[in-house]
Every structure is written in structure tokens, then in C-alpha cells.
């Protein structure tokens, strides 16, 4: 028996199993030889983990199941599946609490490897069920792994949809803000064009006119100018910031109507 095999040394499994395994688990799969089944699975992936941790299940010809680190019997596979269920539940809570695009992206980034792992786990247990015959225990394991795959897939799609909606909402808000800024700039350009000839002529020829305020009692003219300027500033601010919604697009123009069928 090769000491480099990742299988427990106490397992009395066919030598072919040791020969077909490398230093790591490789992909999730099932091996069969002489009535023995070796189920190679992965532990639930963790965020930032590059190398998947392996977990092995050996089913001998008598139908007894043993795991490499979770004990013996059907409860070992149940514990393995519950670890996946706990990982999905943790990400589901994170998805419910997510508010920003960064938080949704983090959930999706962690869900991607978990979804692939559950999908491969379901495929592996399906193969194990086929090789073990009509073993009800293996059927239940297969069905449970399908539920995990479905839950992970639904959660992944939901998180992705929420992220897409959030991005679309932010894009609409930015478009509306850009539209308001464009309208304000257009109005300011109209005002500048309207007063530009007067300012130019006043600059060239001067505008020192006799209006009688030169001899008025100070500081009445000064405060009057401030009040008038403040009121005009409020009116100008209102004129510039009046909301204007973009016109809706129509298929055949503004006056087009969809014919109604009797």
C-alpha cells in the first residue's frame, strides 16, 4: 500500500483505489472495484480557498459506509451534506442583508464555487446511487444533494438579479442627474446669451448713469440692492432647477397611437 495515498491507512480497500488517487482529491467522482465504492468529495469551499479539501467515503460490499474524518454509518454523509447546507444558509443571510453592489458581489463570488461544488456533489452521488443499485440510503443522499444544488442555484440567481437591478437603478439615477445638469447648463447658456450684448455694450461705452441714488441716505441703497439681488437669485435658482423629465420615446412619433381591435 502506498504511503502517499490520502485514504486512511486502516481502510481495507482495493489497491486500485490508492493507485488512481494522487496527492489531492482531484475532482469529485466515484470509483468501483470488487464490490467496493469509493466516493471522492470536497469539503464546502471557503472564500479565497484555491485548493479544495478532500473528503472520502468508502462503502464496502456489505453496504457499510465509512468516512475519512466524519465517522461511520449514514450519519457521516449526513454531516457532510449539512456542512453544505450551513454554508448556503450563511450566504443566504448575507444576501438578505446586502445593500450595496459590493456586498452583493461578495455573496456572488462565494456562491460561485459553492454552486459548482454542490452540482458536482449531486452528480457524484447520482453515480454512486447507480453503482450501488437500489440502495435507499444512497437514493436519499442523492436527493438531498439535489436539494442543495437547487438551493445554491436559486440563491446565486437571486443575488445576481439583485445586483443587476441595483446597477440598473444606479444607472437610471445617474442618467436623471446628467439630464438635470444638462437642462441647467442649457438654461444658463440662454441667460448668458440674452444678457451678453447688454454687458458688452455697457463695457464698451460705459453705464455711469445719473439715477439719483448717489445722493440717497446711506445705507438704504446698499441694503436695497442686496435684497433685490437676493430675490433675483432665488428666482434664477428656481428657473434653473425646475424639473424637466425627458420625453418618452414612441414607436412612430409623438402622435402615434396603437390601433385598437374591435
Automatic annotation (TrEMBL):
**Coiled-coil residue spans:** 77-104, 149-176
**Superkingdom of the organism of origin:** Bacteria
Keywords assigned by UniProt? Coiled coil, Membrane, Transmembrane, Transmembrane helix
The UniProt transmembrane annotation reads 188-208, 220-240
Per its record, how is this protein called by name?
CorA-like Mg2+ transporter protein
